[in-house]
Amino acid sequence: MTYLVLLVAKLRTLGRAARGCVAALLGLLVLGPAGWAQGTQAFEFTRPRAKHATVKFDTQRNLIIVAARLNGHGPYHFLLDTGVSTSLLTNPDLADSLHLVRGEELRVIGTGGEDTPLRAYRTDNVRVELPGLVAPRMTWLLLSDDALNLSGYAGTRIDGILGAELFHAMVVTIWPMRGQLVCQAPDSYRAPRHGWASLPLHLNRGKAYLEASVEQLLPAGSAGSPLPLRLVLDTGAGHALSLETDADRRLHLPPGHLRTDLGRGLSGIVRGSIGRVGAIRLGRYRVPGVLTSFPDSGQVHKRLREHDSPRQGNLGYELLKRFNCVIDYPHQRLLLRPNAQGRQPFEHDMSGLGLVAAGPGYRYCLVQSVEAGSPAAEAGIVVEEELVAINLLPAGLLPLTEIARLLRAKDGQRLILVLRRPDGELHSVSLQLRRRI
């Protein structure tokens, strides 16, 4: 998932009129009105005098997925997202099984600003339990339909999005290689010193912003002078970096960029470009050749800028996972130290296939899109075919994350794919990967 953009407006009843104006934005995923956080009782430790708790997580398609219990039931699975100020339940079936009360109704607006049939409801007093942690009363948003299909994108069940409430209450260290979150009490936390870069965080309306310098690529291919930018810290974004060229006239599309689909919103495909920046500087660390998304400008970005603090883009988990990260909202800082993934190159998909998981256990891998002019299109692959095997390995036994890795493994590598057409006929193709960025 690169972008799933939602806008939310409160339904205000004035006499017989039940339509209101846009009062709050659900940013690159979801933002609730800032005042809602006041109705949430913060996360705390379950053991008296405890100072830390360790929470294991899984990573799929550059998404951090944690297991949590709600109102004593579960576990359920949630994407952990600093870019969301109010947590979100995307599985509407949980409303009945958890006896959730639907409160204030909100309408959901698509990526182009148009209304959608989807509705969201505020639900209060939800008890959330993580290993060693509990939030006795949290406010959530409940969607009327699973329109985001996060489970299909990740290839595993996801019931919603756990937002920034955890980060406001705890100092959270993310260890990507271990698959662990270490949550520590702010009053007893002592920051590490040697080898760690410290960047100030600015908190506004539940979101965290940081300053970073980006070296854009010039037409000749060399890197330009560092350009200071203000970015949203967004663990729920699967990309490395996203820049909004309409937010700053100094930003431009890089040479050799690729026009492509960046993701899928409620009203259809989110279009844009993918390219590279020469480097991004995060404190003392310089990361070269970062793949960067450039979403097309539009009404959504205008509204985001009107309601959010000024920014030029966001920093996603594809980049953050190359560091051990301390996200310290209480002391307003981000600490970074490179890990073993730090030297891995940034590679975009080399096949042109857009895949989604479906069926029981999300074991069916379906072709959702085929980019024109890509190796997949040249091989004759079409939408709605099922990927049955890749290099003789059954696709149903491979996580979608691993399939995506194989499809960007090496420029010029040839893969043998077995596919099933919608009428049930099997056929095979030889697919030669091609680096397009």
From TrEMBL:
- Its Gene Ontology biological processes? proteolysis
- Which segments constitute the Peptidase A2 domain? 76-113
Q: Which InterPro entries match?
A: Aspartic_peptidase_AS, PDZ, PDZ_6, PDZ_sf, Peptidase_A2_cat, Peptidase_aspartic_dom_sf
Which controlled-vocabulary keywords does the entry list?
Hydrolase
Among its keywords, does the record have Ion transport? no
Gene Ontology molecular function, alphabetical: aspartic-type endopeptidase activity
> Where would I find the PDZ domain in this sequence?
333-422
Tell me what this protein is called.
PDZ domain-containing protein
Q: Which organism is it from?
A: Hymenobacter setariae
